[in-house]
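Observation: inputs received (chain + pyridoxal-5'-phosphate).
Thought: call the complex predictor directly.
Action: predict_structure
Action Input:
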Amino acid sequence: MIKVNENYGKLKASYLFSEIARRVSDFQNNNPEANIIKLGIGDVTCPLPDACISAFHEGVDHMGKEDSFRGYGPEQGYGFLREAIAENDFQSRGADISADEIFISDGSKCDSGNIQEIFGADIKVAVSDPVYPVYVDTNVMAGRTGENIDGRYEGLFYLECTKENSFVPAPPSEKVDLIYLCFPNNPTGTTASREELTAWVEYAKENDALILFDAAYVAFITDPQIPHSIFEIPGAREVAIEFRSFSKTAGFTGTRCAYTVIPKDCRGFDEKGDKTLIHPLWNRRHCTKFNGVSYPVQRAAEAIYSPAGKKEVKGLVDFYLENAAIIKKEMETLGYTCTGGINSPYIWIEGGEDSWEFFDLLLNKANVVCTPGSGFGKCGEGYIRISAFNSRENVLEAMKRIKSALK
Ligand code: PLP
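Observation:
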């Protein structure tokens, strides 16, 4: 008998974005003339930088000539890209990371979802609430939780992010083994200071724990005081893994390229409590189940680090941050308390009692789609997330409509 993985049955029936899509589609069917503006799902709208497009084309041309054709590449990624990353994203900021500690992949969703495979089934996992749902669902699928009771899975440890702690959780007083942190945060848009990250690194050291640091939105940090990488914190090499993505940095959501950093001295423990290095485990997993990102895509990603690429990426990020500033200012003028939107493309808005009610109000009265905060966890109830990923014209029009709907 072919038995299925029953853990899948524990997953909450509807994935957040499917429910949003259903409501939007119902509304559109009933109001075919409505011009709906989507500021919900965090997908970029600007095209790839010219520097990336040129390198992409060149990469494709290489594949068409006998002397430059490439077959399977190294599973971990080509040296040219790993070296550019190590130098530009880490060494230039004083973080001691070398090219052979970087694993190129086709996305941070896959990496942050797959990484749990290399850890024990009986570890205690901590996630923030609200949370990027991938961290939770992949641990549910792997059987590390019980049932979902009243919006929370038994067996998971929830780090509550509320306005009382400015949406940045402190390490708990009890012991957890694996901690997912995401800064700049999706969905709240908050960032973590050097002191806050240092407290987490100290906690991980004292408790033999490991931090999974998701920095998918790092490109949006403009405040020079905010660390870009967990590896800027002394001691983090032993106790942390970092995920980065080119999706939001340079418009690669549809092109697909990301990377994971696992320092050579990052450690876990075996059943006997002896230290085991994580890098060879992930290397084994990566090489067994993944065959590398395509050569032209890696060439396109490399171009982000060229002088022209850097300039264009800054232009893209600045553009979305200007959108974020417009959204934040308008919502604050309307009397709403907002978090994020400064070093992040997301604005987290305290909208009243019920997130879905606020979502429906904006959809029905302003024809604008946002994301209900409760979809990210219990602590998100009462909030909505508005994303700055859209054209200037749409953002201005959306805010004009929201203003007249909420006045
Ligand atoms: N991590 C976070 C926190 C995200 O919000 C997202 C995408 O929205 C990802 C990872 C996924 O990135 P990628 O496009 O590289 O899979």
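Thought: report the result.
Final Answer: The chain has a mean pLDDT of 97. Residues 6-47+308-406 form a domain with the Aspartate Aminotransferase, domain 1 fold (CATH 3.90.1150.10).
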